[in-house]
Structure prediction request, 206 residues.
Amino acid sequence: MIKEIYRDANVVVVEKPQGVESAGAGDTFEKQVGAFAVHRLDTNTSGLMIFALNQVAKKELEMAFKNGYVEKTYQALCFGKLRQSPILLSGWHVKDARNGFVRITKDKTPGSVAAKTWARNIKDVGDFSLLEVKPLTGRTHQIRAHLASIGVSIVGDGKYGDFKLNKAYGYKRQCLCAVGLKLNLPSTSPLAYLNKKDWVLTNWEF
Prediction:
């Protein structure tokens, strides 16, 4: 069952569950929703996604994501703690497409692109920390790789996480959720009325 958060004639905002691919071939979330996907969440990341219901909306939303007019907020349960909070993480995103893996490096290398991630500590939960995270650039696996690069790994992450701790605590589910979505479109956009909306997911569990 698709959990809709908002719908009008142009867009629909829904909650994507874990374990479903956002878009592409096969039984993807895009096909389940029956609308145009304009951005993605990793398969094992849950949370808010916005879909276009017509070509005009698709064009406008694609432009919005490309130009940074979309504010995305995540929450992540992590092993380890931030060295300061809030913190702005900056680095260079290196993508290994063949192996489906990325690295964040301090120095620019051929083919790398800038990556910036804002994070703050919400609270400590025993041996864990709950973080609020905002990707200021939209790179593949950005949040997962950027946090791991500073020794703060997302609980249950099978690719960038701490495998020994995941096993020790019995976590097989990636504890990362897209909990906030807000548009900041130019006033001339036909979807500018959506700037007044601030979609927030409050019921996610880790």
